[in-house]
């Protein structure tokens, strides 16, 4: 009985970690990717579903379930990190660079005529 108690406690710990990781990953999804990731999230939900409906503490397949969910969450995390890195390092950095770029130099102390402005910008 004591041996079974240790196994159940380990399963409890593993499942708690999976729930926390799942929650953390879903919080990491950035708004632009929500619609794009819907099929992946649905697949992840389908993988998690047996733990909510058919598995019990006495199930013989609980270890396989934990391994499958862990693997799926790791795969989803890798894809999510790559997507978030794409936004951060490729898109946002270029947009920040564009936003700080000066398109033309205007005098600060005097007005400029439209003709002079056109000549300076050509």
Automatic annotation (TrEMBL):
It comes from the Eukaryota. Pfam families: DHC_N1 (PF08385). One of its GO terms (cellular component) is axonemal dynein complex. Belongs to the dynein heavy chain family. This is Dynein heavy chain tail domain-containing protein. PANTHER family: AAA+ ATPASE DOMAIN-CONTAINING PROTEIN, MALE FERTILITY FACTOR KL5. InterPro entries: DHC, Dynein_heavy_tail. GO terms for biological process: microtubule-based movement. Residues 2-65 form the Dynein heavy chain tail domain. GO terms for molecular function: dynein intermediate chain binding; dynein light intermediate chain binding.
């Amino acid at each position: 009985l004591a041996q079974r108690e240790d196994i159940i406690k380990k399963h409890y710990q593993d499942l708690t970690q999976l729930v926390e990781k799942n929650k953390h990953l879903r919080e990491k999804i950035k708004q632009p990717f929500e619609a794009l990731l819907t099929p992946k999230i649905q697949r992840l939900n389908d993988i998690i579903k047996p733990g909510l409906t058919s598995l019990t503490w006495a199930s013989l397949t609980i270890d396989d379930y934990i391994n499958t969910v862990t693997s799926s969450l790791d795969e989803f995390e890798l894809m999510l990190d790559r997507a978030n890195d794409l936004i951060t390092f490729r898109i946002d950095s270029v947009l920040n660079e564009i936003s700080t770029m000066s398109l033309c130099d205007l005098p600060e102390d005097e007005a400029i005529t439209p003709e002079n402005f056109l000549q300076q910008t050509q």
